[in-house]
Amino acid sequence: MGVKGLQTYVEKNCPDAREKVNLRSLAQDYQAKHGKTPVLVVDGLSCLRDHFYHGGLAWVYGGQWQEYRASLRNFVQNFKSAGIEVVFIFDGVVEKSKRPVWISRRKTELKTVKKIFQYIRSTEKEPYRNLLRLPPGAGMFAGLGLKSLGVRVYHSLVEADREIAEFAFSSDCFGILSQDSDFLIYDMGAASYFSTQNLKRQKNNHITTVRYRVDVLCEHLGLEQSDLPLLACLLGNDVIPHAKLENFHARVSQGSPLIPALARFINGLPPDITVPDIARMISSSLTTVQLFVQAMLSYVLPGQTAKWPVPVSMITKEPALELEGTHAQLKGEERKNSKCPVKHVRPDIRAEILLEAKRRHQNTENIKAIYDILTVAEGDSGVYLEEEDSAIPPTTVFYRPIREKLHGVLYGVGVKPLTGTAPGVDLCSGQMSKLLISGEEIVVGRNAAKDWSAHPGAKLKEPDIILAKPLDMPGGTPTLEALWFGPGARNVALRWKAFMDGMFCSIPTERQKFIPKNLKVLVVILHYMVRQRVLEGWEADAFLIQALVCTDWHKLRRRKVPVDPRAVQLAALFVKGVAVAIAMNCACSWPLAMESCLPWWFFDGKYFHHVYLLVRSGAPVWDLCGRSESRWQLFQLMKDCVSCLGPDEFSRQSGERNSPSQIPGTFQQSGERREEAARPVSMGSSDCVSYSQPGDFWKRSGKTRQSETPTSLEQSINRTQKKTVGSVSMVTFDSVSLKRSGKIGGQTCKTDHGKSETPTQQAGNRLQKGATKPVSKVTFDVSARQKSLPGSAMSSEQSKKKKRNRKKREK
């Protein structure tokens, strides 16, 4: 919420109300006076653009998440070094009265996205920062990332600025840090209002900014502080639109500056006038009167009384904070959908579930979408870098099947009576399909939820209706009670199965356990993208490779990487998938540790873009993996899971499919052959990565592709490596890596313990144990597979084929 024109007026016409201060010095004075550490309440969303995702980070590639995490850590550390404790509060709801403003802003952002793609297609460069669109989930990842750093982080149950003011007032805080003119209106006691926009953090632990002096502003306008809420409502804000007040403004100002004229109008009001009477002086419309009353009450914090009274009848009938967006009971109104009639009811959720959901929401243990669906059956999604009329579907449409299952988990759709009672309706998959076909009643809040999705082509006149569908699990959809409160290892397994089913993940269990924890979300999302046929095989390779090498992100920090429109959309689609996976993880009560789901463990946008261009041009995967056997082996394991082939089939195809000698320079895509020319040469010292024809690399390097692969089994047997970053264990391993063109299906090996295993099983077992010591010596029984091993005799037909391929490359 913001007061129309007030911030600009203060900046231009009341400079004395802007006081430049050093927060370190003020904090020392506060501690000496009160004897406690000063607490600064930070408006989380106000810091996103200028301090978290600051100007030094590339934004069009999909997100520089490791640098983003570093900026979060530095922000907290700067204030800690200055002796200030920071508490973050993020917006947790969009109130019903502010939905029109939300829609208007999203439409403006959609126009901006269109300009961004026009710029990309004409220049192949990142647009200037005036067109900045934050990567998907930047706010969500900021809250979860700050919490992982040990900072207090909260999500609001009402409008965030109100909860920030209430927290500062009730906790006797040092001040609040934001950039919202509403904080000039709230009576926050001794807490000061500091500017985010003017915040400067210096290396000597000095933090400077601007403090806005409300007392100076009141003296300038000739008003008391208790008059400021009325001034804000007369100017217009997100509750009462400025457009409804234009005629009133014209009558009051008569050509003079508006804000001083409104101050004179307030001073001329009789002392016993009520808020509804003032509203009727503006407009005779009942809607305007109700909005005006709601706007006035929103500025009155608990324990405070308003100077301008409101009749008790209006407070009980139209409470300011019991709006649809603040989780009040939905009215049983009827709406029409293009397919069938839709009825709205309050979600019938048990009290203990709601209390736990509220606690998790406020403490940032769940993302805000979970509480919204459980209380008001409504969600929303912002604007992402998506191009209209693209072959890639909008993110909200692409992930709708997962969100349907998410709603099914939260509403108990598909819960069988034998597993216990749960809120919602008991329907099986077949009945749910029949519901749509026959046009039976769909009830929002019971078997469906509303969704405001802003994507190219969306009209945003009415919300979409997303159904709630059951999980396809033995025994039906688990109840929330079982998922959230059930103890024991058996329940842990239930949560994991529910998560995997909700994500449409069919990776066999015996393979899942071999994937490092910090890469599970990556593999699950790519598995879904490949399954939905939106991702080509080589594009999946690019995602996997960058996850293994993105720790070297600093090498590309100051280098220019050409921007590809399809790669931009794929990156946005993937990062949105991370947010959807986190939502499912929350609904299933965290089968994966929340920190391991955050994108800085497995994705860097600029590095992905770089690798994407290299793989497309035909660069060998072996080279892109840094010629590291551990990375190569882990790449093969993850590709196996993403493509989800049978073990024998994958063993036979993996070498041919992933071998550096088998990646062509042309690819089949959308029914057309495309000849790609984007091969990088050595990075060198140039600021710009140059790209040339695929074959040029081999001519310059003077090497043959066969020479890049290991040629002996002894060289390919290494020990497991394990390294820990933060609190997340990031595991890579070296294992048996046969020649890429060989066959390993069915081959067995024996350890010193006499146990027979396939090479892939042995590598996975070593990864599962997390061994940091050299493994026991491995011997191979190769009598039955002698011809398939490296260095063995080849058939005459294979030899001829190899010679023909060599001659083609030489030409």
Please provide a written account of the structure:
With 811 residues, the protein is an alpha/beta fold. 43% of the residues lie in helices and 11% in strands. Strand 21 and strand 22 form a beta hairpin. The longest helix has 25 residues, at 99-123. The chain is globular.
Short description:
With 811 residues, this protein is of the alpha/beta class.
Helix content: 40-55%
Mean pLDDT: 77
Shape: globular
From the alpha-carbon coordinates, what is the Rg to the nearest angstrom?
30 Å
Sheet of most strands: 8 strands, mixed
Broad structural category: alpha/beta
The helix count comes to 33
- Give the strand content: 5-15%
Throw out a few tags for this protein.
three-stranded mixed beta sheet; 33 helices; eight-stranded mixed beta sheet
Helices and strands, with pairings:
Elements: H1 6-13, E1 18-22, H2 23-34, E2 39-43, H3 48-52, H4 65-81, E3 85-90, H5 99-123, H6 138-148, E4 152-155, H7 160-170, E5 175-178, E6 192-195, E7 200-201, E8 207-212, H8 214-221, H9 228-235, H10 246-253, H11 258-267, H12 275-282, H13 286-297, H14 312-317, E9 334-336, E10 341-344, H15 351-362, H16 368-375, E11 378-381, H17 395-398, H18 400-411, H19 429-438, E12 442-444, E13 448-453, E14 464-467, H20 480-485, H21 488-502, H22 509-512, H23 520-531, H24 537-549, H25 565-587, H26 605-617, H27 621-624, H28 629-643, H29 647-658, E15 666-669, E16 672-675, E17 679-680, E18 691-692, H30 696-701, H31 713-716, E19 721-725, E20 728-732, E21 748-750, E22 756-757, H32 759-769, E23 779-781, H33 796-810
Parallel strand pairs: 2-3, 2-5, 3-4, 5-6, 10-12, 11-13
Antiparallel strand pairs: 1-8, 6-8, 7-8, 9-10, 13-14, 15-16, 17-18, 19-20, 21-22, 21-23
